Amino acid sequence: MFSLDQLTAFVAVAEELHFGRAAERLNMTQPPLSRQVQKLERAVGVQLFERDNRRVVLTEAGQAFLGEARRLLALVETAGDLARRVDQGAAGTLRLGFTAVSAIRTLGPFLRRVSDELPEVDVILHERVTSAQIDGLLHGELDLALARPPYDPHLLDSQVVAREPLCAALPADHPLTALDRPLTAADFAAEEVISYDPVRAAYFHELTIRFLAGSQHRITQRVQQVLTVVLLVAAGRGVALVPESARDLGVPGVTFREIALAGEPVELHAIWHRDSANPVLRRVRAMLSEHQ
Amino acid sequence: MFSLDQLTAFVAVAEELHFGRAAERLNMTQPPLSRQVQKLERAVGVQLFERDNRRVVLTEAGQAFLGEARRLLALVETAGDLARRVDQGAAGTLRLGFTAVSAIRTLGPFLRRVSDELPEVDVILHERVTSAQIDGLLHGELDLALARPPYDPHLLDSQVVAREPLCAALPADHPLTALDRPLTAADFAAEEVISYDPVRAAYFHELTIRFLAGSQHRITQRVQQVLTVVLLVAAGRGVALVPESARDLGVPGVTFREIALAGEPVELHAIWHRDSANPVLRRVRAMLSEHQ
DNA sequence: AGAACATGATTCCCGAAAGGTATCACTCGA
DNA sequence: TCGAGTGATACCTTTCGGGAATCATGTTCT
To answer: Where is the HTH lysR-type domain (chains A, B) (predicted)?
Structure first.
């Protein structure tokens, strides 16, 4: 097999049609250049130059080979580019988990920023509930998740990407919608409250429990997804606490009301595996912490 | 810049994910293989493998580079093929000169044989009168000519590719068409004979002169092309001697008659420059002498 | 816990290959 | 016929790649 040095030697001679000048261009002397070309000819099995003591001409085969050689060398030049871009996280794929509700206000702008700042990065989207996203991160099926606590902080790391208040979701014809002040836990005393799965939707479960702590209430349903909760409210099955962005789901028959603030707002986290090897993740994290 | 050996080393390790086995596959020992991969990583500027003392894994960048490396090596494998085919005349271009009349019976089958036996050869056709073809051969504008003598045998070489009888071309209403025997020179005694340019169509000029030698006749026109001759006959401007294939020109108003054989038949030659460097020419010549 | 094993990296040595200098062989032009 | 120009060759030096031995480290089995 021939070597790349032999190819560059050949191309130089083919362009100069003069061994001396070609050698000068390659910063070497003429004899080793002649030998390299001879070796290449032996390796390919074809005479590439017709060399008279007076002039050098490409043979037909040499002309054909010149094209191949140039293509090959061009490919060599650019061979490392993609690898370097991938190494710096500027190219590659990001497997991103998200929940239906997180998507409403956060996913779109996030994807737009990625495609602006890292145009060679492909984002593969996986819609999953939070717990399934955490599993995905731990099993290496996802690189980044837009989800909510809790998660194992030894293995996973995170950053808050959005905060929003919790609010009450009421059927449109519910008496509480008439009140002109933030609702309190006491207002829910007589209500049937739709709440969340303590395991699969632990975050909203906690928030709901905390808000209602000490008041009378009945919890009738425990579901996983905010969307489901809103749909149940619309169906008149009770009232619920949801993140404010649930307004944007546009489910008819549901009215949202401010509540008397019960501690910190709802947080959406970007979560990743502490020792993910994906370089794109580094870049995306840097992008996230950059502004905000 | 990296070397092809480094690429093959990298691909082997990437496929085995084990330096020892990869080294075995490459018929070498493990230490130099490790070094080659390290060098490649330095040359590309990217870490290609994540190597634990227990296992070897491709990095994201390594996976990207693996694709490039495979493409490059595949190209190297096939780089010489085209050059070798060109060298053996199995690929390339043949610039072929021909005359309108030679084309009728000879050119079609010839082109068909070339595209059957040398499918990678492109034939570029140049229709020229014989003398222009000879010039083309001498100036290196043509590789092969389908033409007729004379030519300079020091510089050009040839081979007969077709023989056919000379015959008489008469206006359809001419009295001689009534005769039921081969025509002789004497039959032309009273005729106006259309003949050929002594310089540019020397071959037919010679044949005509030789046939008519010693008889009475009047030569009224001297033209270069057989086709022109036949058109003049059709126009009633006289009679002429033409190769039999001129029948196939399909010019109306012309009748062809056998003549009393005056020596050898009309020959069509394939002519080439003695020191043409085009390898396709070698193959085509071999093809021509192969069967006939 | 400790020993044996597995595996990639490192070190040192040797031989092959590449580059440099001097020279040869040949052609062309004066 | 001689000198200039050009590619090939001979020979030497340097560089580079491969091999054997060894190291460092992590895993596994007793």
So the answer is: 2-59
